[in-house]
Structures are given as structure tokens and as C-alpha cells.
Amino acid sequence: MFRFTSSTGKARSNPVYVQGFDNKDMDWDAETNAGITAPGETIVSSLEFMRGHGTFPDGDEVAATVAGTLQRVNKLISVKPIRSRYTPEIGDLVVARIVEVQPRRWKVDANGRQDAVLMLSSVNLPGGIQRRKLESDELQMRTFFEEGDLLVAEVQAFFADGAMSLHTRSLRYGKLRNGQMITVPPILIKRLKSHFCALTCGVDVILGINGYIWVSKHVKENQQVGEEGFDAESVYSNKNDYIDATTRMAIVRVSNIIKIMARYYYPISDIVLNQAYDWIVENDYELKDLLNEDIGEALIAAMSTTYQ
Amino acid sequence: MAQPSFDRRRVNGPEESFPPIFPDLPAEPLVTNGKRRDGRALNDVRPIFLQTGLISQANGSAYIETGNTKIACAVYAPRQLKNAQYSDVGRLNVEVKFAPFSSKIRRAHLRDVEDRSIGQLVYQSLLPAVQLHLFPKSSIDVFITIIENDGLESCVASASMAASTALADAGIEMLGMVVSCCSAINDDGIWLDPDTAEVKASRGTLLLAGLPALGTITNLWQAGQITSLDALRCIDACHERFKDLHDVVIDALMQSNRAKQAQALS
């Protein structure tokens, strides 16, 4: 790559040079490009600001490397890409799928840049027995998790190469059953107080921050973790419970709502899902029509007007 | 192009066949009164349609149409390198495939040499823009399908632009958007963005790719007989169009993202 000397100036479509940056709510230049940068676009002077992720130094200026929104923390400027893979942080709740069983560890697909790792030492034994994992446990790893199994876990740590290490050392985490998984762009899932949501329609939803969502049959009050009816032996079970027709319909309805929201790039939370579900029931739409374009548009329109 | 080998897993054509016979029409002059057959001036490029997000499975995608040239590009990235040694930097893979019906002569199903050489040219155009050092252990896979081909040079140029748009759509970090323009030199002068017939009638062709945001160029491809002075004139002519092409690319990117963003923030 060499400098093109015969050209007089640089071609820039939207010179969004930011003066002073005094607007606290970042609505600079809002009319012209809605605060979205393009790769190679100059953002600010590097003399005044520090540059973070998604930027590179271009002489005395800071330019963006991704198409995304500008974010500023004091003097630090970074660009958050609009579409990207999930960037893990420690403590995040993720829904993931086992792709490989290896010695003492599972390789897990968690929508990140690299496969995540679930160590044998960071899972619970069936029945919640506390002891060191023995060689015998290593030999029967497939009785815990097999290839293709879905699980809910927490990001525990990072390896030197940036791969994430997961753990399921809580009775709330572990193998998933009685439901279905939907994939959405990770940016749509905001961090909530709890990502285990029990919707009013009698369906449980686990909103993985990595963009994988698990929709399943509701676990009854008295069978939840720590209650009397909790069956510690069945945490690694591969068999679904009996799910009646109404629950199945509710699960599919919630899944379809999530698919609609992903299609229209609408942020997903338990409140939004409850509202959307009520709206669908109120308007008495058939389950099979939900993914029609006009119903989806009407839902999003109703969500953005009535429920704001 | 003849089928390289008989593939019994496919539905093969009859053993013997004859091409249709067309009457010899008098050839239309390529240029009349300084206008080309589609009515544009010598230094005009064909109108461009560029849109992102048409391939939903891919992490990023773009579709480009310039005149008859139609190209779809899908980006799957970053993906973890499987069964490979640890590497500090990512790897950029560009694969180009002609659809069987894309050219005047039916293409074989298998990849041929031309696919690979075009892939190399697109790869070279994109490589300086992509920040591979930020993607350790990963590969960035770009798949380009040429749906219709009208001028090989314009295919390379359009494919480079579609690929950089798709990379930006996938959220891959880049130093800037890659744009590319091609030209053919003839006795009449320099023709920008030539189609197949115009390339055939020309003495030589030249393709230029670069990052207008940085004012740098990333790739230069010259074929045929061109004097060095003519080559420089071609470069200047191509470079003059860079700003317009850059605007088109940025606009396509903004159009798609703006719509999504508006909804994500609402």
C-alpha cells in the first residue's frame, strides 16, 4: 500500500469532525448521519481524545474502523460495531451448545469469535455432590454433556488467547430441556437484573447475552432450585417432560415474537416480551400467521407507540 | 468451456449438441458522438446498485449491480481456524465462484483457474484495509458469487467493493472502505468501467483499487498493451471516480445500518 501522490486531497463523504464534543447525550450531527460512523471516517482529533476499540490513528486524527455508533467515556472514544459477534465479559449469562468433547473439557459454541471452553472441573456433579473430579468422571463426560447439547452457563474467566471459559457451578445453570432455542443479534439483548425470566404467559425465557435465547416450559414454584420438589438427579437428563398443547403453543408464540423482534432489530427484554404477548392475545392472531410481514410490522408499531 | 471431466453424479447434457446459429447482425458502433451504447460518456461508470444484508445466514453480506454485472458477496467472520497452528494474525480467504449461467459460455460447476485469479485480485484489493492483527486465531471468509458477468475487469472492481461493504456489514475492523474502478484504453481514449464488448475492442485494460479515506491505493492490475504514459492517464481517470464510488459505498452502508440502528435505539 503506498500513498497516492498525484491526488490533491482525501475523499471523505461525511467529514464529521466533532467540535468540542460538548453535547452530553452524544447527539452530535444527528440529522446528517444518525451518529453512525463508516470505516475510515475521521471522528475526532487524537490530541484531545484517547482512542478505544474500533478506531485507529490517522495522523493527528482518530478514525473509525467499523460501521457503528460512537461511544464516549470521558476522554475515551470508541466505536461499537452495529453488527458483530458476541464479546464476552466475565459474569455474563450465556446459552451455548456443545460442539466437541475433549479430555477434561468441552468445546462450546457461544457465538463468540472462538469456541468457548467448559472445563470438567467447572461443572456440577449430578445430585450436587461436592468432590474433586476423578478419572472415572473424565471417562463418563458424555453422560453429562454430549455433542449438540444445549446449556446455560456463566462466563468465568478468559484464557490467554481470549477464548472464554464457562462454568455451570450453580444449580440454576446446566443442561437445557423442555424448550427451543432462537438466535438473535447479540446487540439486541440488554443487560438485565436477571436473565432468567418467567413470563406471565407461563413460559420461561433465558436471555443469553450472546444472542442465544432459550424458551421453555415453566418450572413450577415448588420444583425450583432450593425447593422441596427440585429433582437434583435430573439435571443432566436428556428426556423432555410432558408438555401439554397449550404450553407448546405459548412457547411457539414467544419464539415467533422473538423472531419478529430480531427481524426488525427491536431490543428484547422480559417486559417487552410480556407486552408483545399480551398484544398478540388481545388481537387474537393465529399462531401460524405471526411471522407474516404485516403482523410483524403492526406488532413493532404497536410496541413503539403504545408501550413507550 | 468444456466440462473438465464427466461427472456422473450430475444431470449431464446430451452427448452431442450444437450451438444455436444467430444471424450476423451488423455490429453496433461502440461509440457514437462521444456517447457509448448505453448513453454514458467515456469517463462515466455504469449506475451502481449496492445493498447490504441480503444473505441472512451470513455475518455480513452485500449485493452489487453495475449494468449487467451482478454479484452477491457473503462474509462469514470471524471464524475460528480449525486444526491449524496458533497464529497471531487472522487469515483472509476470498473465494470467487461464477454461476454456471453467468457468462456467454456455460461455466463448469468446478472452480477453474479464472475464479482463483479473480479471487487473488480481490484479496489483494482488500488485504491492506482489513486489520488482521486484531483477529488472532481466526479466519475471515469472503465468498463471492458472480451471478452475471459483463466485463471481467468490472467484475473484479464490483466484487472488491461488494466485499468491503459486506466486511463492514459484518463488523470487521477496517482502515477504510475499498473502492475500485477499471478502465480500457482504445484509440478513442480511455473508457471507464468497460463491458465485455468494449474490453474486446480495447488495446489494454487497467484496474485500480484503493482506500479513498486514507488516500492510498491497494491494487493495480494492468493487462494488454499500454504505454506507461497511457497507464498513468488510466490511473488518473480511475482515481477521479474514487470519490463518487466511495460515496455510493458509504451510502449503502448508512442506509442499511441507519434503519437497524433507529430501531435498536427506539
Describe the overall structure.
Chain A is α+β, with helices and mostly antiparallel strands and 308 residues long. Chain A has 2 domains: 1-82, RNA polymerase II/Efflux pump adaptor protein, barrel-sandwich hybrid domain (OB fold (Dihydrolipoamide Acetyltransferase, E2P), Beta Barrel), CATH 2.40.50; 93-306, OB fold (Dihydrolipoamide Acetyltransferase, E2P) (Beta Barrel). Chain A has 6 helices and 18 strands. Chain A has a 5-stranded mixed beta barrel with strand order 9-10-11-13-12. In chain A, strands 2-7-8-4 form a 4-stranded mixed β-sheet, with no helix packed on it. In chain A, 34% of the residues are buried. Mean pLDDT of chain A is 83; it is low at 1-33. Chain B has a single domain, classed as GHMP Kinase, N-terminal domain (Ribosomal Protein S5, domain 2, 2-Layer Sandwich), CATH 3.30.230. Chain B has helices spanning 113-126, 152-169, 196-200, 228-240, 242-265; strands at residues 31-32, 35-36, 48-52, 60-66, 69-80, 91-98, 138-148, 179-186, 189-192, 204-211, 216-224. The model of chain B has no long low-confidence stretch (mean pLDDT 88). In chain B, the strands form 3 sheets. A 5-stranded mixed β-sheet of chain B has the order 3-4-5-7-6. A 4-stranded antiparallel β-sheet of chain B has the order 9-8-10-11, sandwiched between helices. The termini of chain B are far apart. At the A-B interface, strand 1 of A face helix 2, strand 11, helix 4 and helix 5 of B.
Structural class, from secondary structure content of chain B?
A: alpha+beta
Assign the CATH superfamily of chain B: GHMP Kinase, N-terminal domain
> Cα-atom Rg of chain A, whole angstroms?
24 Å
What are the secondary-structure elements of chain A, in order, as H or E? EHEEEEEEEEEEHHEEEEEEEHHH
Return the domain count of chain B. Answer: 1
CATH architecture assignment name of chain B: 2-Layer Sandwich
* Record field, number of beta strands of chain A: 18
Question: What do we call the CATH homologous superfamily of the largest domain in chain A?
Answer: Nucleic acid-binding proteins
Uncertain regions spanning at least 5 consecutive residues of chain B: none
How far is it from the N-terminal to the C-terminal residue of chain A, by CA?
Answer: 50 Å
Helix count, DSSP H or I runs of 4 or more residues of chain B? 5
First-to-last CA distance of chain B: 54 Å
Q: How many distinct folded domains of chain A? A: 2
Helix content of chain B: 25-40%
Strand order of the largest sheet of chain B: 3-4-5-7-6
GO molecular function, one term (chain A): RNA binding
Domain Exosome complex component N-terminal (chain A): 36-73
Subcellular location (chain A): Nucleus
Domain RRP4 S1 (chain A): 85-156
